[in-house]
Amino acid sequence: MTSAKSSPLARLRHAPRRLLDQIDRNHQRIEREYVERGYVRKYADRIGSIRDKRLVEVNKIRYDKRLPHLLVSRPGALTDDHWSARRINTLAAQFPGWKRYLEIGIFEGLTFASVRIRHRVGVDPRPLFDVRYPPRGCSVRVQTSDDYFATIRATERFDVAFIDGLHTAEQTYRDVVNVFAHLDHGPVLIDDTVPLDEISAIPDQEESYLARARAGLEGRQWHGDVWRVVLLLDRHHPELDWRTMSDRGNPQTLVWRRHRGSHVVSATPAQFKSVMEESYSDVFSNGTPGAFRTTSEDDALRTCAAALRAS
Ligand SMILES: C[S@@+](CC[C@H](N)C(=O)[O-])C[C@H]1O[C@@H](n2cnc3c(N)ncnc32)[C@H](O)[C@@H]1O
Questions:
Q1: With contact defined as beta carbons under 8 Å apart, do 126 and 144 qualify?
Q2: How many CB atoms lie within 10 A of CB 222?
Q3: Closest C-alpha to 250, from 301, 203, 190
Q4: How many CA within 13 A on the CB side of residue 25?
Q5: Which of 66, 74, 114, 162 is deepest in the core (most CB within 10 A)?
Q6: What is the pLDDT of residues 185-221, one digit of tens each?
């Protein structure tokens, strides 16, 4: 006997739903296959706006499969904790001629994907996103900043840069000098220039975390000894000006040339050594020293933009 459910009439009635279920299953299967292949459909996903529409869903699958996430192809809206991108974008909006951005240390690509500058180069020996499909106009160099600067042409130029790589004074200072050799006019934003406390200023990240745990303190704040770079600027770089932003996010120092095209020459090893001999507790005994030129984000960005326009 034929049941009502499997009667031709019932089958016909359920056909649309079965078809939709089948389409849905196919869609999920294809999606999984794409993810396994790095998630780029031969044609459609080359178009970033199409890829972006499915990004949240796809990144969930990639997370389950322990695959690195994909970045959005075009910068979207910023939240309050995107202070680095906000600061760079605020400046970039005033200089529409800026076309090239360099970021040293890109990590998960949060800032890199959010900066509104057409061509972006990111440098990191261990980026934590799928570098095969970078955002539109972006390229990623999977190498250290030293290797990157050793291999690019002397004529390579950027309009603005963000230094957020290895947070030691030695590396960050070298990055600053190297970056200025490839910037004619624009500024450099340096991350984490003001430590939260003595423990966050320990240059070795793991050691800093252990010291914090041993002291019974919570959190994983770490800034390294990048603060020494500002002392080096203060003592040996009269050709540069800077402001340290203290509100609306992590303290960062924005640095620019006083005069367009002036050379930024590295301090000597003896000058560097003398700054390395300073201790955090002495330098910060009365709070952040005047050498940091601390001010609000708005004032720092306004001062920098005015100086760039005038020079
Ligand atoms: C704090 S994270 C960068 C965060 C990122 N700029 C952002 O805003 O989301 C620091 C990154 O620097 C990278 N890094 C470490 N040593 C480096 C080096 N020598 N050159 C370039 N990047 C480096 C690390 O792999 C890490 O991803």
A1: no
A2: 21
A3: 190
A4: 6
A5: 162
A6: 999 999 999 999 999 999 999 999 999 999 999 888 8
Count of CB atoms situated within 10 Å of the CB of 72: 18
Q: What's the average model confidence in pLDDT over 140-167?
A: 97
Tell me whether strands 252-257 and 240-245 are parallel, antiparallel or unpaired: antiparallel
**CA 189-106-304 angle, 5° bins:** 15
> Exposure of 193 by Cβ count < 10 A (0-12 exposed, 13-18 middle, 19+ buried)?
buried
How far is the C-alpha of 267 from the C-alpha of 57, rounded, in Å?
Answer: 50
- Domain coordinates in residue numbering, the chain: 18-64, 83-310
DSSP reduced 3-state for 252 = strand
Spacing, Cα 303 to ligand 1 middle (Å)? 28
CA distance 233 to 102: 21
Q: Model's pTM, two decimal places? A: 0.88
Written as one letter, the residue type at 232 is L
Q: Is the CB of 145 under 6 A from ligand 1?
A: yes
Query: Atom 11 (ligand 1): residue with closest C-alpha?
Result: 105
Both tokens of 111, joined, read: 């800032």
Whether 291 and 236 have beta carbons less than 8 Å apart is answered as no
Distance 145 CA to ligand 1 centre (A): 9
Residue 95 phi/psi, 5° resolution?
Answer: -130, 75
- What would you report as the CA-atom Rg of the chain, rounded to the nearest whole angstrom? 25
Q: How far apart are CA 112 and CA 128, in angstroms?
A: 12
Q: Is the CB of 166 under 6 A from ligand 1?
A: yes
Which residue, among 279, 268, 274, has the nearest Cα to 227 in the 3D structure?
279
142 lines ligand 1 (CB under 6 A): no
What is the pLDDT at residue 28?
Answer: 81
